[in-house]
Amino acid sequence: MTELFKTRRSPSAELMGSQFQSWDAEKGEVTFTYDPPPSFASPRGAVQGGLIAGFLDEVMGAALLAHSDNQALPLNLDMNLSFVRMVPLERITAVGRVVKAGRKVAFLEGELFDSEGRLLARATSTAIPTPPPTDG
Questions:
Q1: Taking a C-beta distance cutoff of 8 angstroms, is the pair 99, 82 a contact?
Q2: Is 69 exposed, middle or buried, given 0-12, 13-18 or 19+ CB atoms closer than 10 A?
Q3: What are the per-10-residue average pLDDT scores of the chain (136 residues)?
Q4: CB 112 within 8 A of CB 93
Q5: Pairing between strand 92-101 and 73-83?
Q6: Taking a C-beta distance cutoff of 8 angstroms, is the pair 54, 60 a contact?
Q7: CATH of 17-130, one of 3.40.50.2300, 3.40.50.300, 3.30.300.30, 3.10.129.10
Q8: E strand intervals along 1-136
Q9: How many CB atoms lie within 10 A of CB 85?
């Protein structure tokens, strides 16, 4: 299952520089790291808010994909985001988890942490589980 995160990456995952770290099936939790490039900076010198949303959206989607054994990706109905601290242009860790997943709706959470384990941002999503696209 985890090989998928290493071999089949979306263009947005490559742009954001996501790096798969772990999958905990018992917790339904996936962990990625990111090294935001200088081009992700806002005028304040921290990661721009929309890009923070991208990190969290990706990790929540990966959690559903892993939880469903590669059978479902989320089609977001909504995504709520809380910014707790400015996100530095240094390595950050994103943790995504499946709160509950059914056939018609999935509830997802994501959190972003700095190198010292401090919470930077938190997101939740309500999504429709949909089949991943097929190649070809």
A1: no
A2: exposed
A3: 56 80 91 94 95 96 92 95 97 97 96 98 98 75
A4: yes
A5: unpaired
A6: no
A7: 3.10.129.10
A8: 19-24, 29-34, 73-83, 92-101, 106-113, 119-130
A9: 13
pTM for this prediction: 0.91
Q: What is the DSSP letter of 40?
A: G
Which residues have C-beta within 8 Å of that of residue 135, sequence separation ≥ 6? none
C-alpha to C-alpha distance for 122 and 83, rounded to whole angstroms = 7
Q: Which conformational region is residue 87 in: left (phi greater than 0), alpha (psi within -120 to 50 degrees), or beta?
A: beta
Q: How far is 100 from 4, CA to CA, in rounded Å?
A: 22
